[in-house]
């Protein structure tokens, strides 16, 4: 049988929608391209030729050379990766186990715990930072010269702040999974943890990937917590380093553009490489059943 080819018809409404989306994309992407272009120009050239392409005499790598020689960029990247990866691993493990228990088990106080999880999403981090900071100060893990204790004090509030979101996302996905496979594994003698790690986790990879990506990006970009917990320059993460550059080198537009590019390019690369997992993880739980 021959396939019938259908032509997609664009109504005036669809044309308007695409025009608005295109305009929104341009206004979102152009500032990033502008920063990237000016990171390859000297400071004096940025003021007079800020909208020109960095070609010919305008092109220079001096801003990046200055950034890597003057600033501890690699140390800041290391600290950011240690914090963000630790947050992702702990959040995925704790939120996955909690979501599985809330979905599959019946116990007293279950409805109350679910309400607490939803309620926790309503409190922004700045509303709890003072008691959290005082608690960690009593544990003597902040305001110390120890790099690892400072990184731990940064990761703990981020873990707590991401748990509620992760539990809600994973609960919706786990609830959509058929329970037959878990029952079969239980009849074969698997324990609860074996069922979770060998049956549930493989089936929920898209949702776990979504949670991991969002937690990583939120942790990577979290300047507010870092301002409280990372005091010494050798402890700074990459966003804290950028904040210091903008306050100390605010008039050196070339160095500032290079620093911004160094911070945002890895995030953009990660997003473009993993965007299919974000979309699949956010929609899979809604279409399964």
Automatic annotation (TrEMBL):
Its transmembrane ranges are: 12-33, 81-103, 115-136, 148-174, 195-220, 253-274
Its placement in the membrane is given as: Multi-pass membrane protein
PROSITE patterns reported in the protein's UniProt record:
ABC_TM1 (PS50928)
Q: Which UniProt keywords apply?
A: Cell membrane, Membrane, Transmembrane, Transmembrane helix, Transport
The stretch of residues making up the signal peptide is: none
As for subcellular location, the record says: Cell membrane
Q: Which Gene3D superfamilies match?
A: MetI-like (1.10.3720.10)
Annotated ranges, domain ABC transmembrane type-1: 77-274
Entry GO CC: plasma membrane
> GO annotations under biological process?
transmembrane transport
Q: Which Pfam families match?
A: BPD_transp_1
Sorted alphabetically, which CDD domains does this protein's record hold?
Answer: TM_PBP2
Q: Per the similarity annotation, which family is this?
A: Belongs to the binding-protein-dependent transport system permease family.
PANTHER family listed in its UniProt record: ABC TRANSPORTER PERMEASE PROTEIN MG189-RELATED-RELATED, SN-GLYCEROL-3-PHOSPHATE TRANSPORT SYSTEM PERMEASE PROTEIN UGPE
The protein's name:
Raffinose/stachyose/melibiose transport system permease protein
What is the organism field in this record?
A: Cuneatibacter caecimuris
């Amino acid at each position: 049988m021959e396939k019938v080819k259908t032509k997609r018809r664009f109504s005036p409404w669809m044309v308007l929608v695409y025009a608005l989306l295109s305009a929104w994309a341009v206004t979102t992407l152009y500032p990033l391209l502008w920063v990237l272009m000016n990171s390859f120009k000297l400071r004096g050239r940025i003021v007079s030729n800020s909208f020109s392409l960095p070609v010919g005499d305008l092109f220079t790598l001096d801003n990046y050379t200055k950034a890597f020689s003057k600033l501890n960029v690699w140390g800041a990247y290391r600290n950011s990766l240690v914090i963000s990866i630790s947050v992702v691993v702990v959040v995925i493990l704790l939120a996955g186990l909690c979501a599985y228990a809330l979905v599959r088990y019946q116990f007293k106080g279950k409805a109350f715990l679910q309400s607490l999880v939803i309620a926790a999403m309503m409190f922004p981090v700045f509303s709890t930072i003072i008691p959290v900071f005082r608690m960690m100060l009593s544990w003597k893990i902040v305001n110390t010269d120890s790099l690892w204790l400072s990184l731990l004090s940064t990761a703990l509030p981020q873990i707590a702040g991401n748990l509620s979101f992760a539990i809600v996302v994973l609960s919706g996905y786990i609830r959509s999974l058929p329970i037959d496979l878990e029952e079969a594994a239980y009849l074969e003698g698997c324990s609860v943890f074996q069922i979770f790690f060998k049956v549930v986790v493989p089936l929920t990879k898209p949702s776990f990937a979504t949670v991991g990506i969002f937690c990583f990006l939120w942790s990577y970009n979290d300047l507010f917590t870092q301002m409280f917990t990372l005091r010494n320059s050798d402890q700074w993460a990459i966003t804290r380093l950028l904040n210091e550059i903008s306050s100390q080198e605010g008039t050196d537009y070339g160095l500032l553009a290079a620093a911004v590019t160094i911070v945002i390019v890895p995030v953009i690369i990660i997003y473009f490489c993993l965007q299919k997992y974000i979309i699949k993880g956010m929609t899979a739980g809604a279409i399964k059943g």
